[in-house]
Amino acid sequence: MSTHPTTDPGSAPDRAGPGDHAGPAAGTGRSDQGSDWSADWSALTRDIVFDRIWSRPGLTTRERRLVTVALLAASGEEPAARFHLRAGLDEGIDADDFYELVAHTAVYAGWATGGRGIGWLRSVVAGSEADR
User: Which residues contact 72 (CB under 8 A, 6 or more apart)?
Assistant: First the structure.
């Protein structure tokens, strides 16, 4: 079981991971089952995404983080993209590398997508500088 704080949302109780808020219970109005579903969804995310996929030997964590941010930016998934931008910066990926990634992604995923991604990056970087 993974315990890396930036790749395992379950290891840091004060930090939810991407997808933790949008489990199958969203909008069902069934709070009794919804809490069970949310816990199950978080466990699935941790077990499948982080313990199985992120730990595979084919790519480094840096490579996975860059690919993940590009895909999330291209699909407009802001909360998850911000999570992975923050985690990447915490792991030592330079903000300029993320900028180049977003600029490259914009060519293939749409110029507006790139603009949105730059905004997310700017916001995350500003937040990290404020934390220091």
Answer: 18, 80, 81, 84
